């Protein structure tokens, strides 16, 4: 065999042209075999199967000619391979049959017939998920869809908007400006030309996501009836009947067979954020100065059982059980840049992790103006903080976020809101942000490794010097404790708005209370199995707390809250 191979090699070495000729013939033969296999691999189909109008197989049935292939990742039958089509919000991910599994769409394979079959099946499946109904006018003062909303100026897709609205039980999903998503139970606007919804989705090339003050609206076919009825209504408490009921809660309906879901259903349909149960009457409205929801009563006063639900309380004619529906209160959702350049620069100063982004969200809702930043954070801009891109000296924003603490940087501002937070929680929040993002969490390995001790050693002194520097070098500094803002948002946010030179509108502040969390507030610190602070860390931090407390009291200001120590 070796001798034969040697002769073969010597033959081609003497005649190179023969070698290249042989190589070309070999490759050509291989290509022909490959093409032939492709044509043979497509089975013959009957006329009815090939017809575009042919009936698609029932959901869950095996698609013809695919055999036992498991397409994509985690698929077990053809029903799970159907995604949402382009126009109705297809995305790279979709839910499997169990409602939880999300898998990437695999290749159907098998040539032209499989592609045609895939397209037809997808079109049928997409009609079950959402139906495009048109382009509608939208107004920042009076939204076409008045449920929840969220923005993403980098990754918004039609499917993502539909999915978020459907999960909350809404009937409609609308996209605007290529990046804004609005949900609602009914459309309160006029239809306009399709040509006016001409903006491409930020996260999905080729798909349209409305336009400037124009909504691309979809009806969500799969919104669950139970989700529409119960939604995500939040229990607000037991409250005394307001003095002028018809002004405080303008919609009233008698309900002999009262239940929580019936009243919440009614108020959701009427587009009101509050549902108040009063025995056999249901009242709907907004939180206002006539009914601010600030003075909760003992729940025993509202303990009358519902006539239609044995285990629910439906209040009494004198004491109302109040729920917040999933309808978004839009009285505080309009935001814009300042109409004229501001003559003063006001800082929103804080140590990292003290809740600055949350405070910005509150200020924007309370004033109606965008906030700016000393830095640029693309993730914040993509989530709706449009002032993030402006230079901090532009004068177009109501205040400027900053973590700076040097004399020169502080003296560049004419006034400041100084936000202070418990250092134990601020350090943990900033550590989570550093290793997990704005609303994420640091991994267990980071807490257990060298990162955490080193972080505390470097950042704990900064927590103290940041406050001391602003008290020393700042002009017209308003101190706000994060804990007080969380506990009494109405009063503390009012103080902040007054410093910013904006008239305080109480109804707007009440609206902010119902929208206070926003998209960038971490949902509580993740509980660790152990206390990350060592005894040495606690002794060091306690010394810094006392230093800051003394500095505040030395300027006739309220000292740190009691819960700062002992921890």
TrEMBL record:
Family: Belongs to the WSCD family.
Listed transmembrane segments: 20-39
Pfam families: WSC (PF01822)
InterPro entries according to UniProt: P-loop_NTPase (IPR027417), Sialate-O-sulfotransferase (IPR051589), WSC_carb-bd (IPR002889)
Organism: Myotis davidii
Domain WSC, chain residue ranges per copy: 129-221, 232-326
Name by which UniProt lists this protein: WSC domain-containing protein 2
SUPFAM superfamilies in the record: P-loop containing nucleoside triphosphate hydrolases (SSF52540)
UniProt KW keywords: Membrane, Repeat, Transmembrane, Transmembrane helix
Superkingdom of the source species: Eukaryota
Transmembrane listed as a keyword: yes
């Amino acid at each position: 065999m070796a001798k034969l191979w040697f002769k073969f090699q010597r033959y081609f070495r003497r005649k190179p042209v023969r070698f290249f000729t042989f190589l070309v013939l070999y490759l050509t033969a291989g290509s022909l075999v490959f093409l032939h296999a492709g044509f043979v691999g497509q089975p013959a189909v009957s006329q009815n199967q090939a017809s575009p109008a042919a009936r698609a197989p029932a959901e869950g049935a095996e698609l013809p000619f695919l055999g036992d292939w498991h397409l994509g990742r985690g698929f077990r039958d053809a029903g799970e391979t159907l995604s949402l089509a382009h126009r109705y919000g297809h995305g790279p991910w979709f839910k499997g049959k169990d409602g939880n599994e999300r898998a990437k769409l695999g290749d159907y394979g098998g040539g032209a017939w499989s592609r045609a079959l895939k397209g037809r099946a997808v079109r049928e499946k997409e009609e079950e998920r959402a139906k495009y109904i048109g382009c509608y006018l939208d107004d920042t003062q009076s939204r076409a869809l008045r449920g929840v909303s969220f923005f993403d100026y980098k990754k918004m897709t039609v499917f993502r908007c539909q999915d978020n609205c459907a999960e909350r039980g809404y009937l409609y999903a609308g996209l605007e400006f290529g990046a804004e998503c609005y949900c609602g139970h009914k459309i309160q606007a006029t239809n306009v030309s399709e040509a006016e919804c001409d903006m491409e989705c930020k996260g999905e090339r080729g798909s349209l996501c409305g336009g400037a003050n124009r909504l691309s609206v979809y009806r969500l076919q799969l919104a669950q009836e139970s989700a529409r009825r119960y939604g995500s209504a939040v229990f607000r408490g037991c409250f005394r009947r307001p003095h002028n009921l018809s002004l405080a809660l303008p919609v009233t309906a008698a309900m002999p067979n009262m239940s929580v879901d019936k009243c919440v259903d009614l108020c959701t349909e009427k587009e009101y954020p509050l549902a108040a149960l009063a025995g056999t009457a249901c009242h709907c409205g907004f939180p206002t100065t006539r009914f601010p929801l600030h003075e909760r009563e003992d729940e025993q006063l509202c303990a009358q059982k519902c006539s239609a639900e044995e285990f629910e309380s439906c209040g009494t004619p004198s004491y109302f059980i109040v729920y917040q529906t999933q309808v978004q209160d839009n009285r505080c959702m309009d935001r814009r840049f300042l109409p004229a350049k501001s003559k003063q620069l006001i800082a929103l100063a804080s140590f990292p992790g003290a809740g600055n982004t949350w405070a910005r969200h509150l200020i924007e809702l309370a004033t109606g103006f965008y906030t700016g930043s000393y830095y640029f954070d693309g993730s914040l801009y993509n989530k709706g903080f449009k002032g993030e891109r402006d230079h901090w000296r532009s004068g177009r924003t109501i205040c400027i976020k900053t973590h700076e603490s040097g004399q020169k940087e502080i003296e560049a501002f004419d006034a400041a809101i100084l936000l202070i937070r418990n250092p134990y929680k601020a350090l943990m929040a900033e550590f989570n942000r550093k290793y997990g993002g704005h609303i994420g969490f640091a991994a267990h390995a980071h807490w257990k490794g060298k990162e955490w001790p080193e972080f505390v050693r470097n950042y704990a002194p900064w927590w103290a010097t940041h406050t001391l520097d602003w008290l020393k070098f700042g002009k017209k500094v308003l101190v706000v404790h994060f804990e007080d803002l969380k506990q009494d948002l109405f009063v503390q946010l009012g103080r902040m708005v007054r410093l910013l030179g904006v008239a305080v509108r109480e109804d707007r502040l009440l609206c902010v209370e119902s929208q206070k969390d926003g998209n960038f507030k971490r949902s509580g610190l993740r509980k660790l199995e152990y206390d990350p602070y060592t005894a040495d860390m606690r002794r060091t931090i306690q010394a810094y707390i006392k230093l800051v407390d003394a500095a505040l009291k030395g300027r006739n200001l309220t000292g740190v809250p009691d819960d700062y120590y002992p921890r």
